[in-house]
Amino acid sequence: MVNALPLSDYRPRTKLEVRRTQVERPRFPVVDAHNHVYFNGQWSSPEPDALLRVMDEAGVRVLACVDAAGPDDPLSVVRDTVRRFKGPHPDRFIVLARPDWRLLSGSSASLARRFADCVAEGAQGLKLWKDLGLTLRDGTGNLVRVNDPRLDPLMSKAGELGLPVMVHAADPVAFFDPLDATNERYEELLAHPDWHFHGSQFPPFRRIIEDLRDLVRRHPKTIFIGAHVGGYAEKLDYVGGMLRECPNYYVDMSGRVAELGRQPYTARRFFLEFADRILFGLDSFPPTADAYRVVYRFLETEDEYFDYTPDGLEPQGRWKVYGLDLPDEVLAKVYYENAGRVFPGANVAG
């Protein structure tokens, strides 16, 4: 009789023998439109020169610093990021600012003014993190929703300046479900219980996503980027519907190869239809050349049943992914051309 094996110790090795393609470098220059050099109050990337070596090895021409919530003043974070990364290497980095939520209790115009200050210091866009709509509360204790009217002057200011607003809304759908034997992210949520948003203290997933849709509709003159395939990679029909409805809306693919790669037929149709509206992104900090190569393999080959992480671990779910084998004209748009339209003035073509 075989002894019971804990699921955490189960690491099966496939006996499937299919083509394995090593993609060392992408077919075109790459703009990584979603990565982090600063996260929650600390530098999360290597020194600039070390990061540039990784980028050069991986064929990444430009990296966007889309840094998330932290205890520091967003204006000081922009200044420090520009000084540390973009100042010495102006053609290699794009810097996005965060809102200064401390100003939310004042006039709604104060958020817009602070963003303009960040732009004056070198910011080239705005990043809204998932705390908006999920955990962020105002001075009266009320949850601040993604479509809160107090954000309207801030969104309008971004449109007036011709700069994009990247929105990380919600998180994977399973993070909002009960943590039981049916949850496909069970192991991941056990490892990261703070990522579990099920319960009456959290809004439902669908409400957050619908609030994002309302925000984008309400500001047609502002370019929005839905981070992580618009927050709903599990349902590409929904994301596609929003892209068709809102010509000012783009999505990035960061952190979602695991989701996209397990639905290769649907994902390939999605990439072909919306080739002009999808941005490349890795969302790995610190990034590595091997992590980039997994994404290149996913986009460029028709390889089957391979790991979605370079180390073969499966943090998001116990499944493998399949390549999309995208045509060159689509790859060029996803890798750098679309980013060139969204981030004005960036030398993205290499």
Overview of this structure, please?
- 35% of the residues lie in helices and 10% in strands.
- It is built from twelve helices and ten strands.
- 45% of the residues are buried.
- The protein is of the alpha/beta class and 350 residues long.
- The longest helix is centred in the C-terminal third of the chain and has 15 residues, at 328-342.
- It has one domain (29-342): TIM Barrel, CATH 3.20.20.
- The chain has a five-stranded parallel β-sheet with strand order 6-7-8-9-10.
- It starts with 29 loop residues before the first strand and ends in an 8-residue tail after the last helix.
Task: Give the SSE layout.
Blueprint: E1 30-35, E2 38-39, E3 42-43, H1 48-58, E4 60-65, H2 74-86, E5 93-95, H3 109-120, E6 126-128, H4 152-161, E7 165-167, H5 186-191, H6 205-218, E8 224-226, H7 227-230, H8 236-245, E9 249-252, H9 257-260, H10 264-273, E10 278-279, H11 289-300, H12 328-342
Parallel strand pairs: 1-4, 4-5, 6-7, 7-8, 8-9, 9-10
Antiparallel strand pairs: 2-3
Task: Give a short overview.
With 350 residues, the chain is of the alpha/beta class.
Between the first and last Cα atoms, what is the distance in angstroms? 61 Å
Percent of residues in beta strands: 5-15%
The CATH superfamily bears the name Metal-dependent hydrolases
Tally of discrete structural domains: 1
The number of helices is: 12
The proportion of residues forming helix, as a percent range, comes to 25-40%
CATH overall fold name: TIM Barrel
The rounded Rg comes to 20 Å
Largest sheet: 5 strands, parallel
Across the major sheet, the strand order is: 6-7-8-9-10
Report mean pLDDT, rounded to a whole number: 94
Low-confidence stretches: none
How many β-strands, per DSSP?
A: 10
Based on helices, strands and strand pairing, what is the structural class? alpha/beta
The CATH first-level class comes to Alpha Beta
Following the backbone from N to C, one meets helices and strands in this order, namely: EEEHEHEHEHEHHEHHEHHEHH
Shape: globular
Second CATH tier, the architecture: Alpha-Beta Barrel
